[in-house]
Design brief:
about 550 residues, eight-stranded mixed beta sheet
């Protein structure tokens, strides 16, 4: 398989992420599948920012340690990453600011020549990259015009000058027969799924790494015909969203660890009042402020149990663009069919990673909600526990929701028989949810599907685990649905497995605790909790040591 990896690095404020997206877009327009990993500290200026763009002829969802080209806008980039350079790789560096082997590019000289602003140094580096790998200038110009709508002509002059100063040393050819591919972040794929599921409103307080969903949906709100609201706090977010739901608007919210902590009372309210709500929860390192711009998978158990009392919930953790699209849409539908809180559980790696999809997304037909009977009872008892929703105002009917224990009409009640009836009603919804979600697609099985040793993972690590399983001849088992746990699909995926290796970005192995309730055990835990995801080469070595 033909593939390339490019690393670009510099300080916060140098426009590293934007330059990475330009390079990713160029590869995408050449017909490659692309994955972009972004690494940055929580600083407005300074620090070390870098991103790795990996392009390949087949879908890729993770990065590799080895890179073919380093684009160094500062000395730290050259110093920290030079050992990752492949044998035939090279460095393009900003001279005289950076001392390195490779090709020098006098960026300040180019900026002075065209009176460009310092931030345009990233455009110069993109031009130098394209000259180095032989990208036709017509394609470079088309991408810059599309991606840089402000000061476009000046950016083109700077990129063209840098393009002409670099010697070609790597040949990147278009993928034969392939068309340009869409390129979006994980957050944007989630946002598209929410739209496909039919949301009417999105409410969020910005919090890394979930903020991209808010920014994306705000940018398309008018076109999509939805309300996007940024209230003053996470508590206001969840309560406003539940108000929207009561009024009949399909609503989603987005947050991360600390923000979700503030929302948990609202989650309990949704459970008791049976108000549908979708929560996009993107994990980052904790506890407390923790690592605001780095990744973790340490909120699984919290999400499974957040809120006091017992009530059904749905949790899915997608690992690919199409899964994010489909399960986000499904989360909207399940929330409204069953009147429960549903969760899309992401993490920084997936949310802020940039991907081309593995195939074209498909929008599936939705089923209408059951019609209510009259006189209306908001919590009417039914065989499956789901009471038909009536949206207020409705002439002659009262639509009452209640956070207290209540009767079928929503009137507060502490009667023991009514309490038991309402608890059992909610439990029947949980039973129905389990039958609806323990279906093909709830667990992904790959690699060598007959192998007796399995790599077990969930969420974003599946990208790297899948490649490791293929390389080492192991089975890959990856639950997408995490609550209610799809026991039937998981059991079928695990048939014949004798050894289980769990890979997770946490310090305790939280999926291991979920599996213990289902009667499964893991034999080895490979855990990472420094905020960074595994690269393929790193994980191959760690799995190889414990797989035999």
């Amino acid at each position: 398989m033909t593939e390339y990896s490019v690393l670009i690095g510099g300080k916060a404020g140098d426009g590293i992420a934007q330059a990475g997206q330009l390079i990713a877009s160029i590869f995408s327009d050449l017909g490659y599948y692309v994955y972009q990993y972004v690494d940055y500290p929580s600083l407005i200026r300074g620090g070390h920012n870098f991103c790795i763009i990996r392009a390949a002829e087949k879908p890729v969802f993770t990065h590799r340690t080895g890179v073919d080209l380093i684009l160094a806008l500062d000395q730290k980039t050259a110093d920290l990453h030079i050992h990752n350079l492949t044998t035939q790789g090279t460095v393009i560096y900003d001279s005289p600011k950076v001392k390195s082997e490779g090709q020098a590019l006098a960026i300040n000289e180019i900026l002075a020549q065209y009176k460009g602003r310092p931030i345009m140094g990233n455009t110069a580096m993109v031009g130098g990259f394209c000259g180095c790998v032989g990208i036709p200038w017509s394609l470079v110009e088309a991408v810059i015009r599309k991606k840089l709508p402000k000061e476009t002509d000046l950016n083109l002059l700077i990129a063209r000058e840098a393009y002409s100063r670099i010697t070609r040393c790597i040949s990147v050819q278009p993928v034969e027969g392939a068309s340009p591919r869409p390129l979006l972040s994980g957050n944007e794929w989630i946002g598209l799924g929410l739209l496909a599921g039919g949301i009417d409103a999105y409410v969020a307080y910005p919090m890394t790494p979930s903020s991209g969903v808010l920014h994306f949906l705000a940018s398309v709100a008018d076109e999509a015909g939805i309300d996007v609201v940024h209230p003053e706090s996470e508590i206001a977010v969840i309560l406003m969203a539940l108000g929207f739901a009561y009024a009949g608007k399909k609503t989603a919210v987005g947050t991360s660890g600390g923000g979700f902590c503030l929302m948990t009372e609202g989650v309990s309210l949704a459970g008791m009042a049976e108000l549908p709500i979708v929560i996009v929860l993107s994990q980052r390192g904790g506890p407390s402020t923790g690592l605001p711009t780095y990744t973790a998978q340490s909120d699984l158990l919290f999400t499974c149990h957040a809120g006091q009392g017992e009530f059904p919930r749905f949790i899915a953790a997608p690992a690919t663009p199409l899964e994010a699209f489909w399960w986000a849409a499904e989360a909207v539908q399940l929330a409204w069919k069953l009147q429960i809180p549903t969760f899309i559980l992401s993490d920084k790696t997936f949310s802020e990673g940039i991907y081309t999809p593995e195939a074209e997304p498909e929008i599936r037909a939705t089923t209408p909600l059951p019609a209510p009977s009259y006189p209306y009872k908001r919590y009417a008892d039914t065989p499956d526990g789901v009471s038909p929703i009536l949206v207020p105002p409705y002439s002659g009917e009262v639509v009452k929701v209640n956070s207290y224990m209540h009767d079928y009409s929503g009137i507060t009640s502490e009667d023991p028989e009514m309490t038991v009836a309402m608890v059992q009603k909610r439990l029947r919804k949980a039973e129905k949810l389990a039958t609806m979600t323990d279906q093909p697609g709830a667990v992904v099985c790959g690699g060598s599907v007959k192998a007796k040793t399995a790599i077990l993972c969930w969420g974003s690590p599946r990208g790297v685990c899948s490649e490791v399983a293929d390389e080492l001849g192991l089975r890959l088992v990856s639950p997408v649905v995490l609550s209610p746990f799809p026991a039937g699909e998981f059991r079928r995926s695990m048939q014949g497995v004798e050894k289980v290796i769990l890979v997770e970005d946490s310090s305790t192995g939280q999926l291991d605790k979920v599996l213990a309730r289902e009667g499964y055990r893991t034999d080895e835990l490979i855990l990472r909790y420094d905020g960074r995801p595994f690269a393929v080469e790193e994980l191959v070595e760690r799995v190889r040591r414990v797989a035999s």
